[in-house]
């Protein structure tokens, strides 16, 4: 017999599909490509390479899931490309093409450390190019770059941490449902969704949030050498458009992707005609630096059933996030 949760999911999908205007639903019967990453040339012909590495969506160590299958998560995908790039001595510059509102604190910190380690081992120059959003964790992972460039319409900043702790106590009261808990220590069930947090527990959560937020601020201060007044401003965790971010020195330049590529070549001492490459799992027609996928989408690497719905926080798990919440809804 099917589980109630699965039945609910199926019914929910049917309702969505029958809803007026539901013309964005796409179904693909092809499975994700299992082919290894291979280099694809985008432009240029002279010696030396600039590798474009896209970082798109919520930063998470969890695998990506759709209705019927599971794929490698974003951290795995990015680290796999860094490992492959490290084996190629012709790669002299790395262009991080970031379009992310951030994600979990652990995923953000893993990518930061991996990029830092890659830079230290290879001496490769790194340029971070921000697209729609490079906020919170999306900004955190760009800190190791030698140059940060934002598109004129980029939203960045949100330098801080948010703690998410959903509660169902009110709903349970209305339904007449209760949960009994036996615990070995006073704080053993801290953060329980089944009851409101006590004032003491709220202080604990705020203390943890503050410490994780300070870690982020300290990294920004280390990498960006900001004036105290600017640091106080960004510590509010507000977001900025590119011109404001430039004024605060959160970024180095405002420009377009082709300018970021040129800057990467210049920093690495490469010819303007040096090769620009990406890693793909399948050949893509009319490939350009704006393609943020490693395989053909939607048929390869995309969801088997594409409901054209927004991307939300992974599984909506409780926890600490370097994440700009409105930005968690992506294309």
Structural descriptors:
2-enoyl-CoA Hydratase, Chain A, domain 1, 331 residues, 9 helices, alpha/beta
Low-confidence stretches: 15-33, 297-314, 327-331
Q: Structural class, judged by helices and strands?
A: alpha/beta
Q: Tally the beta strands.
A: 16
What is the H level of CATH, i.e. the homologous superfamily? 2-enoyl-CoA Hydratase, Chain A, domain 1
Please state the second-level CATH architecture: Alpha-Beta Complex
**Average pLDDT reading:** 82
Straight-line N-to-C gap? 36 Å
Give the overall shape, derived from the CA principal axes: globular
Describe the structure in your own words:
This protein is α/β, with parallel strands linked by helices and 331 residues long. The chain has a single domain, classed as 2-enoyl-CoA Hydratase, Chain A, domain 1 (Alpha-Beta Complex). Helix content is 32%, strand content 23%. The chain contains nine helices and 16 strands. It has helices spanning 4-18, 74-86, 105-122, 137-140, 169-175, 199-224, 228-234, 242-247, 257-267, and strands spanning 26-27, 38-43, 46-56, 64-65, 70-71, 91-100, 102-104, 125-135, 147-150, 155-157, 162-164, 239-241, 253-254, 274-280, 305-306, 319-323. The strands form four sheets. Strands 2, 3, 6, 8, 9, 10, 12, 13 and 14 form a nine-stranded mixed sheet that branches. It has a three-stranded antiparallel sheet with strand order 7-16-11. Strand 8 (125-135), helix 4 and strand 9 (147-150) form a beta-alpha-beta unit. Helix 2 (74-86) packs parallel to helix 3. It is globular. The chain starts with a helix and ends in an 8-residue tail after the last strand. Mean pLDDT is 82; it is low at 15-33, 297-314 and 327-331.
